[in-house]
Amino acid sequence: MIAEIISIGDELLIGQVINTNASWMGELLNRNGINVKQIKAIADDKTAIFEAINASINSVDLILLTGGLGPTKDDITKHTLCEYFDTKLVFNDDAFARIKKIFRFRNFEVTDVNKAQAELPESCMPIINSNGTASGMWFEKNGKVLVSMPGVPFEMKPMMENEIIPLIKSKYKTPIILHKTIMTQGVGESFLAKKIEDWEDSLPSNIKLAYLPQPGIVRLRLSAIGDNSEKCEKYIAELVEKLKLLIGDIIFGYDDILLEEAVGQSLKLHQKTVATAESCTGGYIAHLFTSIAGSSDYYKGSSVTYANEIKEKMLDVSKYDIEKEGAVSETVVKQMALGALQKFGTDYAIATSGIAGPDGGTLEKPIGTTWIAIAGSDGIIAEKHHFGEHRGRNIRRASLTALFMLKKVVEGITSLQ
Amino acid sequence: MIAEIISIGDELLIGQVINTNASWMGELLNRNGINVKQIKAIADDKTAIFEAINASINSVDLILLTGGLGPTKDDITKHTLCEYFDTKLVFNDDAFARIKKIFRFRNFEVTDVNKAQAELPESCMPIINSNGTASGMWFEKNGKVLVSMPGVPFEMKPMMENEIIPLIKSKYKTPIILHKTIMTQGVGESFLAKKIEDWEDSLPSNIKLAYLPQPGIVRLRLSAIGDNSEKCEKYIAELVEKLKLLIGDIIFGYDDILLEEAVGQSLKLHQKTVATAESCTGGYIAHLFTSIAGSSDYYKGSSVTYANEIKEKMLDVSKYDIEKEGAVSETVVKQMALGALQKFGTDYAIATSGIAGPDGGTLEKPIGTTWIAIAGSDGIIAEKHHFGEHRGRNIRRASLTALFMLKKVVEGITSLQ
Q: Do B263 and B250 share a structural domain?
């Protein structure tokens, strides 16, 4: 099955918004055995939408449109599709019920513009949007499918995953593609490639490998293509086992699990609790922990001690040591971790202190220098890392590194002594 | 002048790489008065390149191609363009001199594949690549221009800025486009549209308005097209003034400033400091503050008191009140803010307590119920909000709402009494 993605929105053409939707969809489609032939970004305008559909409808089986479905005047897709498919808008009671529910929940009155969102083209099959007021629309004509979705990522993504992909799979035959994603942390893409070079060269022709780097994390995606699902699974399992022998120490999980979720699972399993004392990471580790539902079972809180006097006051760090060794030092980061362990009364505590940048670097402690400590009842360990020059990425890398250190401690892979 | 961007590369279609090149180019072209009609991403393959050019060459004046010019086998653009423009490759001495210089600088021998990069289509004008071995190519045919560039961002960007844009400007007349982005927080897209309906209806035809929503924030982008830059600026300034009368209370800044940056600027200007006491936002406000370089000037830290006993211990919240009123209550959130004010010794303190979800909601306090308090030496205020059902978005919306509340307090728009 061959697909095209058409992203509608002037903001994409003038570079105000980067088209991350299309990449996300491309990845999802590819993973489901659907070949993306082309991605197009076009203007929020009737002629452009008509032209884009006409230019592609004969060379693909499926067109996925996003954008232009909001309630405001600059949104035009629905009317254009009505004209294109020679149909008319009809009021859809189910869609209106969902809109009302969303508004009731937010304690707002339904406005006329929102009510108008319940009007949908007669010839389409509406697609449920669980996160917003604009329904998706599934059109079929001459054996081709066109699906229109909102451009808001958190509305589009669940629609793609929960509604559209299952619909495609139920209606069309797609080849069997099995994927296994290996989540790694701590080693950059090119070094990782070097480490697994021989393994990669030995991959059989029906197995594909993709490197999917994110800041601080590299996902390795193995895809097996075939007509026998069990065989594919066996192939992949064997390859993962071999890979674990090479890079087992940097694998924190599989299949797109978040590191913060994996750590949370370990803490839950071992019935342990944790608190954080954050300087350079500035609350980002706390945010990662608490972004996972149910984290209150194991995460108790954080002292974000951005200022030195707060490190003294809140975590009993020695003023003398801060002056003598500097806040970015093994001594101070260990005192922070011990302070947090005692104040929060948890089984473990994480502490970070580093120079996130862009200022504050010295010859001896350049930007990116970061100390991380993990304390527990058995003892304490600290590691010094050198990340990069970019503030945001330093914060993220320091936080992920700290979480992974904790995971290994909780699981007994690293000892605190 | 109307342009199309064609990005060549399989990695774009399977979502392995996000097409940031095209956004960057779109922004640059738009800023220079060149209208981008369409952005396309296509496969690294001769047929796809032919089809993409043929589909667009009649409807645009300029096609900008990136990608497929490297020395490896999967790069195919140059040969395809030779065929398309019915020309042949000739060895270019200047291009070879630049390749040799780059290799000398890197201390490498020039290989045959790299020497082959000095072979360029006879009918094109080569474009200098100061950062790599693949020259750009400028073709003209029947009044249309096609430019091919490498896809490596640090090679493409200087080529665009230093060679291609000046060439276009010297050869073609381009109009003036001015943009102004108005940043708003606290009101959803549809309500905002309702509020500014009459203003929007009165916009002259040379002014375009776009709603650009993000979780918790809506950006309004005004674009003025004309031939006189002063006039365009005056138009936009007048429209913004009128808009301020309508929705001044939800505007936190202009031109893509982040709310956390705008609050930081206010604190700096008024020489005030702040700390946070976070329950439901779980450190996200701390993270937003500390993601801004230089925030240590005004941000002192956070007590992320996720567990109730930690609220008591770290912020002196009354155990009795937590039991009586619940942690998500005006009484508790105010005690948290006052606790943080006292513990951190800052001018202001923000506190949050709410039910982020997906669990923990009750009939009386459904998921999304959030109390936010701001304390200062003049007094304390607290607001109750109802956000949505989605944990991540609740955390973000609560944090942004709290930051904006603080900004208004710091600027004297809201009184603490």
A: no
B72 vs A393, more confident: A393
Query: Alpha helix locations (H) across A85-188?
Result: 93-106, 112-115, 153-158, 165-171
Q: How far apart are CA A21 and CA B221, in angstroms?
A: 20
Amino acid occupying residue A173: K
Strand partners, B113: none
Q: Is residue A125 situated within a structural domain? A: yes
Tell me phi and psi for residue A265, to 5 degrees.
Answer: -60, -40
Q: In chain A, what residues touch B211 (CB-CB under 8 Å)?
A: 70, 72, 74
Q: Do A314 and B314 touch (CB under 8 A)?
A: yes
B13-32 tens-digit pLDDT: 988 889 999 999 998 998 78
Does A343 lie at the interface with B, CB-CB under 8 angstroms? yes
Please enumerate in sequence order all residues whose Cβ is within 8 A of that of B24, keeping only pairs 6 or more positions apart, or say none: A15, B153, B157
Q: What is the ipTM for the molecules in this complex?
A: 0.81
Q: Is residue B384 part of a domain?
A: yes
Q: What is the pTM of this model?
A: 0.82
Cα separation, B128 vs B156, in Å, equals 10
C-alpha span between A278 and A398 (Å, rounded): 10
Q: What CA–CA distance (Å, rounded) separates A142 from A134? A: 26
For residue B100, give both structure tokens: 């040799």
Q: Give the count of domains, chain B.
A: 3
| SS3 assignment, position B359 | coil
Q: List all residues 6 or more positions away from B93 whose beta carbon is below 8 Å from its beta carbon.
A: B118
- What are the chain A neighbours of B289 within 8 Å (beta carbons)? 282-283
Asked if pLDDT for residue B392 goes beyond 90, the answer is yes
Q: Give the number of beta-carbon pairs within 8 Å between A and B.
A: 271
Residues ≥6 apart with Cβ < 8 Å to A61: A1, A2, A3, A143, A144, A145, A172
A172 — contact with chain B (CB < 8 Å)?
no
Joined together, the tokens standing for residue A172 give 């069309």
Reading the block at residue A374, the tokens are 């993990």
Which residue of chain B comes nearest to A19, CA vs CA?
A: B19
Closest Cα in chain B to A297 = B307
- Identify the CA nearest to B173 among candidates B223, B229, B227: B227
- Whether chain B has a CB inside 8 Å of the CB on A294: the answer is yes
Q: Identify residue B293 by its one-letter amino acid code.
A: A
From B171, B204, B225, give the residue that closes a domain: B171
